Amino acid sequence: MMPQTTAAALPFPEPPPPGAAIEVAPGVLWMRFPLPFALDHVNIYAIDDGDGWAIVDAGFADDTTRALWDHMLAGPLRGRPITRLIVTHHHPDHMGLAGWLCARFGLPLWMTEMEYLYGRYFLSGTEAVHGQFYERFYARHGLPAEYADAVVERGHWYMEQITPLPNDFHVLEAETPLSLGGRSFRVLKGAGHSPDQAMLHCPAEGLLLAADQVMERITPNISVHAMQPEADPLGRYLDSLAMLKAVVPEGTLTLAGHHRPMRALHARIDELAAHHADRCAIIAAACADAPRSTAEMLPLLFHRKLDLHQTSFAFAEALAHVNHMIRQGDLEWVSRGEHWRMRTLRGAGGR
Ligand SMILES: [Zn+2]
């Protein structure tokens, strides 16, 4: 189930063809790089930085993306150098080739502190993303053991698709404006999809690089991981949507990490918040009559058939809703031993 953005506010309805760029604002280029997943592309932006281009996000670490970088530099980027690399968050579709690009061109890397450190953490490999504690985490919430094994294997392969990061970086901080070429951006940060995702807002021009926080057509994955099994990333995500609505005006040209630019930012934020409220209502109804596990919520929340990669995301997302509802007092745990189950408080429908 993927809510749709109000169609009227799409200023560039056609994405750039492979290998091309669209100038979405003066000196701001929108490029699309492929991904080997159901979500088959990631957006990368080039912003005029005086002596060359500041690049926002690096793409997935595969040979297709490496070859496309060569093509982009010679083609749409007109042979001008890259001045710096800004990475919005540590996920492999955005940070995958960051280390490769920085090493190749001697680029300074700009990230929020938390996203950089998470990137280093996932680069530590086996211990970070495999291990028995992951299997226990899945089993506790009702995923069968053999299935949990496969999800651990496949789902976390994804997190290791990162080229080694530079040892030093520049911190993107909310208090410090970022000058790129003649533009001054303020850094906004949002949690939920990733711990401390960076967004860049240029109020003077009505421009927002929103990363994966607000996108047309899809909702960003909001995940609970084994490392913080009782975290409430959905609560933090909803807080960040409220922050964006408060500080970024409706009509702002919003350039996201996936799909097309849009202007109906506030309308989209309202759709996203409503989408999560609907999902909470489904869980509340399902847990009204008898205690249920989080794994039992998956077929209720996701109607299409999920492969292993998608299942790891779907499970993490279902648990994000459950944990949020526990915090809100809409659900309570009825057993927290080997198998965790929850039931609805305040009657069916919850909220
Ligand atoms: Zn993404």
Automatic annotation (TrEMBL):
It comes from the Bacteria. SUPFAM superfamilies: Metallo-hydrolase/oxidoreductase (SSF56281). Residues 41-258 form the Metallo-beta-lactamase domain. This is MBL fold metallo-hydrolase.
